[in-house]
């Protein structure tokens, strides 16, 4: 005999403003099996939970339906409350009358009607619920950090500090990421590599941290506490263990005309290279696309000069497999491609550059050794025209865009206002004879000491900030750039003749983020930023258990914010890894062996490898014994996704807590 | 075809197999039925392979291959696809089966002959070119090509995809797409016209289960329509649910696994063109996920059981106008 209690929550006015909660409580009281219904202002409050618990005891309830917010929000709350009152947690169902009802409907009539229907569906389902008991699974005490930029480095250091093993997988030959390319950092103007490289060295020296550089994550299987990752170590044709990083091979390599990605193609590197002096690991890498030995088998100079005998032209990609308890996505960002922004003449003139290119031009280890020159004069730096006299900065190139131009973004890239103020200030400091213009939409400088920094640029350093956008940059025959822009404050069109135009290019998530997100079954937004489990309350966790987010892969942020988030992320990872075992999810699949055909459809769709087959003996109706191949599910591995239940042609696969019959009962109740 | 018979007797005699799955005559000469033979005498007496042997023997191997000893089966080109599909689903024990591929030039279908206007048919004979129809009102000879069943008129393949040995020459896969012509016609109808068409056809169904029982993809140990736990068992008694939904549920269950062998339509006593539902799914799968032929091999993941980045989104149904 069912004794079901229905509890309808007002959620303040969140639900009650659009749904007649009293009418819902009234309507469901007539349903078969319902012995109690009530509405209350905040069911999740202590008083609300007490109401649920008291009713379970007094009315001897066998099932509870809470009509409230999404189960993602408070299912766990009410399950816990029910368990305290002696009812199995899994005899609680949530009807989501907030997100699926009051928030999306405008009028009370339709909102109330739908709320009643959703409540009926939940009642129909709870009638078929069975008590479930979760099992336990062990936790692998090792973390994987995907991406070795400042975010990944900080997260790895903090996890290692807490005493857990952590692997960093970085697709470039060195860790360090974008921060290695930056010259100075705002708002304190300390040198980026001076503060970053000690951290990179710490990673290399920490015995808890293992760095897989020039490697990519190939696949991830498993679930929280028990992930298995396959990592592809790309062949660098240099034995990492033998190479001492002496650089003799780089010196001798005859292939000099390879665009240097570290300097964003502003100069060239060799076919065998160490990205920069402070690289970690400091190991040479052969670029097989340019190496003469790899391309036509003639050269071998690097091998001849290598005293350590580290060069190995026959090295192959290697796949290694490792188990992890937690995975951190720290995949970072890239500036967007701006080839399609023809009005800024980026592809037409070498003197139109992105802000990251300017960082390299101003850096002592950059192509001009730190002297600010126009890129068109890089090879003749002594020319008196080499130094730019007038520089125009253009803000929001590709950011905050309302047009759907290919590649432009709706969001604010967040870091550009501050780094442009930094660039302008540094240039005015070092070259006071230079005129600096900044065209902006707004200047956004929230952050500790940020606005003071920007005001210094304007007030102390005399940078010309002009509110308005640049409409067109036209290269002139004499090599100068004609910049047309509007000044919205004086309401006039401006023409500036510039030697250098710097575009504050929007940033976007790294291209690999999407495939890594798919691998991790972590959700992403339309811009390919990873989504948080909760934007305010769980900002460093992905909705997928055991997957955590660090740095710009979650949204644009500057270095201080990235480091803050990276440490927060590490704290969450450590919180998981200190546990010896996790309480499993009892809502797992199981197969009815009498129905199973052994066709393997379920095994093929199972993303977790939870299904195996065995031959079993079955007594037939005619009393003979037949051997049949049947499926069985490993409940510790199954995550209850339900893919097998829909792939199964015979209906042998079913999911605890979401059985086929329960779902059909819900559908029937909705359609009634 | 004497060669087929002789080979069956040889393999029985040398002990390679202890049983032969083949065809024998039913009540009428055109009404061929599958049969298991265990001796040369039985084969001499009853075994038949001629232009009327339409039944697909692969489904019988689910049970037969699990019995003691090895068995011989004769498969026409289209039957080998079903055989492969069943191998893929681990339903047939391959090591217990010896497969001989037999050639096929299309099989005569009694319903097609009746539709040509013949009445009181008492028997038929074929010489490969022409079919002589014996009726109560005399004999008449017609072109065999005109008498083929639906499945043979738009034959998908004359190539055997699996065999241990072959009798006769192997043919080619037919890629002219003619088998989808009727589906295209249905697609061009408005939703209302199409609904009327299928209501008309499906209302003829008497739920004899012949389609389900003959279908090599419908091979569940326990069919959902016989399973009280499924919630869809025996609803015909209470409403028109089964009349409307039986064939749709069945076709969804075999989607991506149906090899288009056409047996469902061949055995339907009410002449419902059931294969058109399956062909619509095959056509959609081809269009959504790239050409796929179930049973072509035993390894390829079926599109509906494999997820790739390139898979179309469900919204494609709307963009192609399927909701009109």
Report on this model:
The complex is a heterodimer of chains A (672) and B (324). Chain A has 672 residues and is an alpha/beta fold. Chain A has five domains: 4-126, Rossmann fold (3-Layer(aba) Sandwich), CATH 3.40.50; 142-234 and 317-332 and 512-577, FAD/NAD(P)-binding domain (3-Layer(bba) Sandwich), CATH 3.50.50.60; 248-305, no CATH class; 334-508, FAD/NAD(P)-binding domain (3-Layer(bba) Sandwich), CATH 3.50.50; 589-656, Alpha-Beta Plaits (2-Layer Sandwich), CATH 3.30.70.3270. Chain A is built from 18 helices and 34 strands. Chain A has a five-stranded parallel β-sheet with strand order 10-7-6-18-29, with helices on both faces. In chain A, helix 1 (21-28) packs parallel to helix 5 (108-126) and helix 5 (108-126) runs antiparallel to helix 18. Chain A starts with a strand and ends with a helix. The mean pLDDT of chain A is 94. Chain B has two domains: 1-107 and 155-176, no CATH class; 177-324, no CATH class. Chain B is α/β, with parallel strands linked by helices. Helices cover 33% and strands 13% of the residues of chain B. Chain B has helices at residues 2-13, 40-46, 61-64, 77-88, 110-115, 150-153, 181-188, 191-202, 210-214, 241-254, 263-267, 275-289, 316-319, and strands spanning 19-25, 32-37, 71-75, 97-101, 121-126, 130-135, 138-143, 165-166. In chain B, a hairpin with a 2-residue loop joins strand 6 (130-135) and strand 7. Classes of the chains: A alpha/beta (672), B alpha/beta (324). Chain A binds chain B through residues 515, 518, 592, 594-601, 604-605, 613, 626-629, 647, 649-651, 660-661, 664, and chain B through 66, 88-91, 219-224, 227, 229-231, 253-254, 257, 301, 305-307, 309.
